Amino acid sequence: MLQGSPRLTARVAGVFELLEGSASVFGQMIVPGMLVVGRDAAATANNILANEALYRLGIAVSLMAVVFHVVWGLLLYDLLRVVNRTVASFSLLMLVVGACLQAVTGLLLLGPLVVLSAGDALAGFTSDQLHAQAFVFLRLNTQAYDVFLAFFGVWLAAIGYLIFRSTFLPRAIGAGLILEGLGWMAYFSPPLGVALFPVTVFFGLFGELPLIAWLLIKGVNAERWKAQAALSGHVRVGDAG
User: Fold this and answer.
1) 50 is in which domain, residue-wise?
2) What is the pTM of this model?
3) Burial class (CB in 10 A: 0-12, 13-18, 19+), 78
4) Alpha-carbon distance 106 to 89, whole Å?
């Protein structure tokens, strides 16, 4: 707990949630979306080489998102473990699994650069073959990101349950997070996840977005947090500011 203050912890968590969402979207969606040309491996490879600085920036930002995600998740765990220690511990496990998968997706983006810049090391391959190999790494990145989204959904649903059961954050946000989490979990079957993507984004309007705003503006109700923490045996009333 930052300086023993649940309200400060919540606001810092909101900052890192905003940073993680922005970095992840930029690194995994915006930059690849600008450079990948449908199923055209050659055009995609040429775009990556012509915009290498932007592509490398996307990789760096997507990896920074992992750090932001871990910090955001740990701060929420610190806040929400007073609700239910078992569910909070499960959410922590899902956070670790999800962060590892998120890191793998970022590292897979390095594959095309390695292949396309290998020079003599891959001299036996034609340009078309090199382009195809680079494109395979991009496809692997997409599939790995789908798996990450599925585990992210499990984590989000667990967080939503804890918020719904808490007395210091709005229950409506918890319900929105649960529904959004179920939508992301559909990516355990990627075709289903893609089909439900608009619905999942819609639920995000009632889940993640309100959570960011609430954490940044309101934080948490410190008195109710202290009361629930006291009931759970985490702190004595008056110990936290």
Assistant:
1) 2-231
2) 0.87
3) middle
4) 26
